[in-house]
Predict the structure of PLC-beta PH domain-containing protein.
Amino acid sequence: MNNAFLSYNCACRYYFVVTKNPGEQFYLFALLASYLIGKIGINFQKPEEYDDPNDTIEKILQVVRENEIPVNFPANKLKQGVGEHVVYILDRLADKALAKHFTWQKPVPPEEKQEESEVINDESEINLDRVEEEMLAAYTDNSDEENLFLLDNVKVNKKEPQMTEIKINVSEEAWKLELERVLPHLKITIKNENRDWRSHLEQMKQYKSSVDSSLGVVKTQLEKLHKEISMTLDKVGNREKYLNRELENQLDDYRMLQDQLSKIKDAYKGISEGVAERNRELFRLTDRLETVKQQMEERGSSMTDGTPLVNIKKYMGKVKAEIVDMDVRIGILECILLQSKIRDEKNLETMSAAPGGRTGLAASPTNAVSLKSIEVPQALQSGEKFIKWDEDSGVGTPVTLRVDKNGFYLYWMDQNHEMDLLDIATVRDTRTGRYAKIPKDPKLRQIVTMGSQDTLEEKTVTVCCANDFVNMNFINFCCTRKEIARLWTDALMSLAYNLNQINGTTNMYLLKAYTKLILITDKTGKIPIKKYVRG
């Protein structure tokens, strides 16, 4: 681990403070963090330079939180590789690393060579004051305890010093001659101390004598100046009183004018606010006026334009003609249906009158086959709440799904009372469960999901319809429970594959057409044009 640390690039102490190279700084931060985490005792994989920064930061913060280090900033603060948050993480990891498996070693000071003291022999000046101070400090120093010589710390030198005899090679006469030669060159300087009270006393006496000598002249000048200032002040006071008496009326007038000016300013301020408010109201009224004018122009142009009225009259003529045709067709169908009912009643009477009950139509080979009658469950007739959805439009519409009592049509009505129907004879398959279609769009899937008991596939009913088995259309409905979806799937499949749907009599087809006309009529008993055109 230490060798790995030595392999990292060197960085100065301010490396993580200033942004220079974010990628390189972040990589070095990740390496240092992994090294410190390893020092803590946690197995941490060394990050690579091209790893995802988000994953690396998440791993480092996970270890930091596990070691109970508070993190009160978002993770993206570490992505730049610089800043106080980076320094904070490295500092806390270093504290954790030092707290585990680390002991401070005893410092080893380097050996210092003692330099030979140089003796300065060229001093030609002796300061007696400094000598006295040094001697006084040597005798009166209070910090003698710090300079105590400890015998315990002294090691006995086993080597005995060599005793040498000092020999004097200078005679007394030569010494005196040298002293007489050097003595004129010596300069003795005696400096006064601030603590010397005698010098202070002498200075005080000198200052007192100088003050006494100057006092007479200065006092005379000050008295003269005092008299002049007093006379000037008296003149100024008299002049001020005179001006006050002369200008008293003008001052009163000035005060009155000031009061009037303040009142006028207040009134002007109030009037200005009122004017501003009225200007804003004028702007609002102007905008409204422009809007009304524009609306009047649009309505005037629409009133003078007769094209919409002509189109309405033309379409009304077409609608009336189509209504007449529909009335004729309805009358013909009702007449044919009535004739068919009369014919069926006669056939039934003939069959009941024949011996054995097998004469007339029942005796023919075609009707010898027993066809199961169409029975529509009451649940399908009463209807059920579904959501009809379409993948192309991406819209889910709440509808009420029903089947007519004769089992001819599957029809549904939305919240706006818009009705649509499907001929059950064109149904080729009904699906639910894993074979049903479900929305691919997550938003549409959320819209069509009703209830939380079963899965969306189990609650979906897919109706496959077409005039052939190639060009298929899919209509999708979603309900609240899988039992409802299963009931409708089985019932619609049974109705679609009943032989009576494709091998019915003429009366059945007339009844089927009549049922369609009844279903597409509105509350007033009329057929909407869009239903007729689409049909």
About this structure: Confidence is low (pLDDT under 50) at residues 115-125, 143-159, 356-371. Strands lie at 125-127, 187-189, 384-390, 395-403, 409-414, 419-423, 427-431, 460-465, 473-478. The longest strand covers residues 395-403.
